[in-house]
Amino acid sequence: MQRAQETERDSEVLIVGGGIIGLATAWRSAQRGLSVTVLDPDPGRGANRVAAGMLAPVTELQYGEESLLRLGIASNERYAAFAAELEAATGLSTGYRACGTLAVALDADDRAELREQHAFQQRLGLAAEWLTGRECRRLEPMLAPSVRGGLLVAGDHQVDGRRLGAALLEACVRAGVRIHRSAAARIVLNPAGDRAAGALAEDGTAFTAGQTVLAAGSWSGAIPGLPPEAQLPVRPVKGQILRLRMTRPDGAPLPGGPFLSRNLRAVVRGVHLYLVPRENGELVVGATMEEQGYDTVVTAGGVYELLRDAHELVPGITELPLLETGAGLRPGTPDNAPLLGPTALPGLVAATGHHRNGVLLTPVTADAVAAYLATGQLPPEAAPFTPARFSSTHFPSVPALQEATR
């Protein structure tokens, strides 16, 4: 039950949402000298808790997403320095690993699709090397004999989303960011109703701020208090994942060498699958794509499908211990691209809607939104992703989107 309203707390920037996007934006904003408050009941433990952490702008490329590709490449190019700075500031590891990604095909149809993707990548000047099935198995001996070919993308890497969240939270604390552990009950407007003025927390605390950043992930379109024209078209997209162990219980490697040495992607019966081997011996397998609203129940069917498809790709996977199953919510938008920068409501700034690229786009989002908060100018790489690209004449309203996912 909501308590009586407490004393107002002021800051220059209030960030609603403490996932990795919100925390990274808070950290970068504090580095620019802004006073920042983050409002979240469990900061650092959003969708990143179940994310595989692939930094894969090239192998994630889809037709019609060239602008998103450029944003992803810009973020990926910053990641090594971003991770190093974060680790130096906190003493905590982010699990960043420059390992590359191998995308493979299991049958003739998958091979044709992968060939087409390679041609598209070449037209865009991207670095991707075509390999035969034998060459793929030479790189990753655990692959199934049925692998027909693959693409090696040396520049697609990985980071550990859980470690990243913990490091960002510590960096914010050390930078003087105020963390308030409660959810936002609603966005608050000024007396005239024409500007965002902060938020009211579920515990009754009222926060006022010159600028309010909506970074609440899949909940960004559901927080009350906004006028219709400022509501963001964000919906939850469910993803189930598995975590297995590739090492002995004592951490020693299994006989025969490493199980996998780099990120692995495939299309199995038309379904996209990835396997991400961590340096700590963990293997992440994912992920389903389900329009199930805010449901985060792990289902037997989801686990079965992931294991079945992963077994076709790497038969030995069924011998590995299963450590964990999980489900999270990606914040999807109508065009699968993020919402960055000013909204239709003055004082309200968006940093949400990253869908399947939230971990990848963390550095570039934090830099862009912090720059806007400090200067009023959005960097050129973020300009195509403002909420202004959506209008009610082209896309359904937020309530309609939410109803469609129930």
Describe the secondary structure blueprint for this structure.
Elements: E1 9-16, H1 20-31, E2 36-39, E3 54-55, H2 66-90, E4 101-105, H3 108-123, E5 129-132, H4 133-139, E6 149-153, E7 157-158, H5 161-174, E8 178-180, E9 184-189, E10 196-201, E11 206-214, E12 235-245, E13 263-268, E14 271-277, E15 282-286, H6 300-313, E16 322-332, E17 339-342, E18 348-352, H7 362-375, H8 398-404
Helix pairs in contact: 1-5, 1-7, 2-5, 2-7
Beta-strand percentage range: 25-35%
The residue fraction in helices comes out at 25-40%
Please write the CATH class name of the largest domain: Alpha Beta
Rough outline:
globular
Structural class: alpha/beta
Largest sheet: 8 strands, mixed
How many helices? The count is: 8
Instruction: Please count the beta strands (DSSP E, at least 2 residues each).
Output: 18
- The H/E string reads EHEEHEHEHEEHEEEEEEEEHEEEHH
Unreliable segments of 5+ consecutive residues: 393-406
CATH architecture of the largest domain: 3-Layer(bba) Sandwich
Q: What name is given to the CATH topology of the largest domain?
A: FAD/NAD(P)-binding domain
Looking at CATH, the homologous superfamily of the largest domain is FAD/NAD(P)-binding domain
Organism: Streptacidiphilus alkalitolerans
InterPro entries: FAD-dep_OxRdtase, FAD/NAD-bd_sf, Gly_oxidase_ThiO
EC number: 1.4.3.19
GO molecular function: glycine oxidase activity
